[in-house]
Write a structure and sequence with these properties.
30% of the residues lie in helices and 18% in strands. It is an alpha+beta fold and 219 residues long. The protein has a three-stranded mixed β-sheet. A two-stranded antiparallel ribbon has the order 4-9. Strands 5-6 form a two-stranded antiparallel ribbon. Bound molecules: zinc ion. This is Thap-type zinc finger.
Length: 219
């Protein structure tokens, strides 16, 4: 029985398909790094590249058939592309490194970061399903125009501040929108026309006016 190596792809337990070596970390350094980036297995990050080359393999199930010759060998262009378990860990680590040094207000997360964060946490904790969260979000009405809820929130937030702490900057700017009309089943109306909250027109909206209020701390 031939020796079976550990597959470098996180969580892979394929017991039968043939296994393939990484490109050599020195002779084919760029390809080796490309494979590592795609496979993105966190526990490999602390290992020496030569150790990975000697002790880990990648199963055939992770390669596209056009990257495999008729006798089962990999072509030079082959890169792992299939049955790769989620890249969650890798992305989360990158995001953490990127945001770690920034102040909380300066941290930025892409939509992907947020979704991946939820996916990772949902493996560890019993969280509400995506559908439950979406149905809760749908209940929050957020229409055009002046939103009284936001004003109430601002009022509540600053009620304990001193007078000099209430100095603020009000900024406003326009934001381009993708012109689009769609039927909202929950609101039973067409969304996408120019809407000021108190008045609508038949023009299709392509811009929004955005306000931002920032507290300026006066010392
Ligand atoms: Zn595998």
């Amino acid at each position: 029985m031939s020796l079976r190596y550990k597959c470098a792809v996180n969580g892979c337990i394929d017991p039968i398909s043939s296994q393939h070596r990484f490109p050599h970390p020195q002779k084919q350094a760029a390809r080796f790094q490309e494979w590592m980036k795609i496979i993105a297995h966190l526990s490999l990050l602390n290992l020496n590249n030569i150790f990975i080359y000697n002790n880990y393999r990648v199963c055939l199930i992770h390669f596209r058939k056009e990257h495999v010759s008729i006798n089962g060998r990999l072509y030079k262009c082959a890169i792992p592309a299939l049955n790769l378990t989620s890249h969650t860990g890798w992305h989360m680590l990158k995001d953490q490194l990127k945001n770690r040094m920034k102040k909380p207000q300066a941290r930025r997360f892409t939509l992907h970061d947020k979704i991946m964060g939820y996916k990772l946490l949902s493996r560890l904790f019993a969280l509400p399903s995506r559908n439950t969260i979406m149905s809760v979000l749908k209940k929050i009405k957020f229409g055009c125009g002046i939103n009284q809820v936001l004003f109430n929130h601002i009022k509540e937030s600053i009620k304990n501040l001193q007078s000099q702490e209430k100095y603020c900057t009000l900024m406003f700017d326009e934001m381009a929108l993708q012109a689009n009309l769609h039927w909202s089943t929950s609101q039973d109306r067409i969304i996408g026309f120019e809407d000021y909250g108190f008045e609508c027109s038949s023009k299709i909206a392509d811009h929004a006016l955005v306000f931002m209020l920032r507290l300026d701390l006066v010392l």
